[in-house]
Amino acid sequence: MTNRLLFTLFLAVFLWSLIHPHDYFTWFLEVFPAIIGIVLIVALRNRFPLTPLLLTLLTLHAIILMAGGHYTYAEVPLGFWMRDAFHLGRNDYDRIGHFAQGFVPAIAAREILMRRNVVRGRGWLYFIIVAICLAISAGYELLEWRVSVATGSSGDAFLGTQGDVWDTQEDMATALVGALLAPLLLGRLHDRQLSRLEAGSGSRGSR
Fold this sequence. Notes:
The protein is an all-alpha fold. Helices cover 78% and strands 0% of the residues.
């Protein structure tokens, strides 16, 4: 039931974001990670089912991406509300997106590494999770750079610096904070769900 509810929510927001976005070029660039994610989740749902926690986080992250794709990150209404309420100098909705870019992949990396027994020590696990998230963040910033160079003014909305010369560094720092916090805040809950998932897989395999 939870999976169906999350999929329905994803589909509803996806269709909303697709209707009259700021422009379809920016929409596609912002939303394609969510599209790739949902395809992988559906394709691997029997071979590698995910915990409810990770599915929920991935859905929330997809919603953040789709809202950014619909409006562009610099023009999302929530960001304007934050700017006015907290007396900020810019629309900081993109900081939410980059925080999620660290927070959500941290749990995804944690789930894959633990279930595949890639890392044994919890200290090394934490370090590798953070390193993976920083690599993802840096890779995305490089993608933004190349798209902006290749498309000129058409890629400005995707780049979304809003005149901030330190935007790239601040984006990666925000993702780092998300990656550092996720295992600390959700690690115990994630462990319990992983145990239940493994127990369920074991019981099905013994039938």
